[in-house]
Amino acid sequence: MTEPSATALPGTVPAPPARLEPDAIGVAQDTVIGMATSAPAAVVAITLASLASTAAYGGGPVLLISAIPMLIIANAYRRLNMWNANCGASFEWVGRSINPYLGFFTGWLMIAGYVLGTLSGVEVLGPSVLAIFGNSGTNVWGNVAIASAVGLVMMTIAVLGIRITARTQVGMAIVEYTILVGMSIWGLVAVLNHHHGTYHITSGWFSLSGIGGKGDLVGGFLIAVFAYSGWDGTVYVNEEVRHRRVNPGRAALIAVALLAVLYTLAQVGLQGVVSPSALQNNSDDALVFVAQALGGGGWAKVMALALALSVIATTGTGIVVGARITYGMASYRALPEFLANVPRRFATPAAASIVFGLVVVAAAWVYLLATSVQNAFGYVVDLTGLLFAIFYVLTALASMVYYRRRILSSVWDGLILGLLPLLSAAFLVWMVVKSTIESPVPQRWSLLGIGVVGVLLMFVSRYVLKSPFFQIRRETDPGTHPVSGAHARA
């Protein structure tokens, strides 16, 4: 079946031709890539104790409620991908539907978010790998060596091709998810059977306000939004997915739904295995600690394996999707043109993959070795969820603007393409504002710094690289035909 191709009307800038390997992976593999980008086991390890404390053990409902706006925004991604299946994704969608300057800024936020998101697993990667072999996780040079090796190996796999990347991700996902789901069910059974040392389930576990109404709903939502970040990884490999205008969007929806089930099961199943005080006292390695409480040291090593695989997987997908966003922008000369190089042998954005991978490895070295700047680095890494939330909002707005004629033409489209994305975007804006207000001052300065760097790069792209992207004209769906790949000028 031939996919409809995007056509440019007079006065518009045509999208670059697809040069990556077409029809290389299917929707199931793409779904795994999106889930791996969210790093389920690593996220549970980071958020298990904090969400239990913040939501007063009402984290299950918080996670399920938070999945709703994510599903709505994933549907906005799906509809935009039906219009234009380009691995630049939101960079191009926002630029072509709203404004090219805002599109560039969106692309910058995506790159920054994926660099920081990939880096955020560094703090748990080394200790997890060392724990498997019974070594101390405080060995700094051991952590550096592991982070470097993983970064370089996953970078090499990313260069070699999307097929080997997908196979690698599926293999790691099977092991990681089997361990996480199995341990979560084991933990839930232990809690339900009132095993010694467990914290028993009450009605507060199923309330948004938590036990005794003491849950911080806003704080819980902030943690949940961070947990879901990354499902959009399915879209940035769209040029390499079979039926590239349809399947990446489907994979995004499936990824969010599966993450909702996985996170809720893990939170409800594991948070009560030990007492609240024990969970908080071991919050830095909560997942491994809970596994040890369930089955002893052997099962703790098994959980450490799942955690290590989760971080390795997200490092790989972070490099893959980050490189494709970079490649998509460089194809318009919005970034240095060499980043758009695609060797025929591999049909991957090799230059962008190497640069992105080396940036992640270098950042890991700085984070692990420069203890004097670790706090500052920590503030920057903590912004990951906010950056994702911001470009999710911009993408939802792009969907509304591009399909605005449909929004006004029928009640159903008005709901699906207008009202629901608007409410979801408003929810995320509220989260960003609340988080920014409540965050430490250095973190606010870090967010401002990322924004300023983005603006400076925008001017370099516009006036030094002379990118034609800034000359594009706004486009909109005509609203009179089924959604297709054709563009219409506003």
Describe this structure in words.
By secondary structure, the chain is an all-alpha fold. It has a single domain (27-471), classed as Amino acid/polyamine transporter I. It contains 19 helices and no strands. The chain has helices at residues 27-38, 40-54, 59-83, 90-97, 100-119, 122-132, 140-160, 162-192, 217-228, 247-270, 276-281, 286-295, 297-330, 350-369, 374-381, 384-402, 404-407, 411-438, 441-464. Helix 5 runs antiparallel to helix 16. The model is unreliable at 1-11 and 484-490 (pLDDT under 50).
Tags for this entry?
single chain; 490 residues; mainly alpha; Amino acid/polyamine transporter I; globular
Topology:
Blueprint: H1 27-38, H2 40-54, H3 59-83, H4 90-97, H5 100-119, H6 122-132, H7 140-160, H8 162-192, H9 217-228, H10 247-270, H11 276-281, H12 286-295, H13 297-330, H14 350-369, H15 374-381, H16 384-402, H17 404-407, H18 411-438, H19 441-464
Can you give the mean pLDDT?
A: 88
Residue share in helices?
55-70%
Provide the low-confidence segments as ranges. Answer: 1-11, 484-490
Described by the principal axes of the CA atoms, the overall outline is globular
Indicate the multimeric state. single chain
Query: What's the level 1 CATH class?
Result: Mainly Alpha
Main sheet summary? none
CATH T-level topology: Amino acid/polyamine transporter I
| Tally of strands | 0
Structural class: mainly alpha
Number of domains: 1
Strand content: under 5%
What is the chain-wise order of helices and strands?
HHHHHHHHHHHHHHHHHHH
The number of helical segments is 19
User: Which CATH architecture is right?
Assistant: Up-down Bundle
Computed over alpha carbons, the radius of gyration is 22 Å
CATH superfamily: Amino acid/polyamine transporter I
User: What is the first-to-last residue Cα distance?
Assistant: 30 Å
